[in-house]
Amino acid sequence: MSFRDRTHAGQELALRLLERAGSGDLVDPLVLALPNGGVPVAVEVARALHAPLDVLVAREISTPIRPETAIGAIVADDPPLYDRQSLTMMHLSEDRLGDVIARERTELHLVEYVHRGHRPPPSVNARTVVLVDDGLTTGLTAMAALRFLRRHEPARLILAVPVGSPRTTAAVRSECDDLVCLHQPPSLHAVGEWYEDFGRVSDTQVADMLRAFHATA
């Protein structure tokens, strides 16, 4: 089975989460999307759960030498989360990545401003937080986001994705209280393999989706 697009994936994911809500596992939920691709998925989830929606910006870290390979991820002003195996394979150390991290951190804050403006991030303390993305491959951004959220003491922390690799979901599961993943194909090379339409989601589209959601919420 594949998804028509991210909206369809969000609708299918929402159905699974509604089952959890019916059993009392989703009390006072807050839905947070990992932009940009996670936003159209999260919109459908938040609508189904009648929950508020916001974004949590995370950025993968790569290097000019291997820009296609993620070696870590950052969220807000938290310390970077590194893939130690990738660092070793590329003969890199953290102290050589200061300039890379600084550039990515600047870009992250610019993206946060684009998506949120001067609006403060929502409080997650003592709430059920549902973190949504369009899929898991390396899982680095999701893991960095989950660790960031855990520090802010939610009552319950749930990661919800339409598709993910079994190895990654197993690795990330310990970072949250519950993980909802509709499909775990044995070999997942790219999330886009599971979507008929996996086009790029622009910042403008994200802004439009969030504006439309909040206008009708």
UniProtKB/TrEMBL annotation:
Species this chain originates from: Streptomyces shaanxiensis
Keywords: Glycosyltransferase, Transferase
Presence of the UniProt keyword Glycosyltransferase in the record: yes
UniProt keyword annotation of Transferase present: yes
GO MF term (any one): glycosyltransferase activity
Segments forming domain Phosphoribosyltransferase: 28-181
Stretch forming the signal peptide: none
Protein's recorded name: Phosphoribosyltransferase
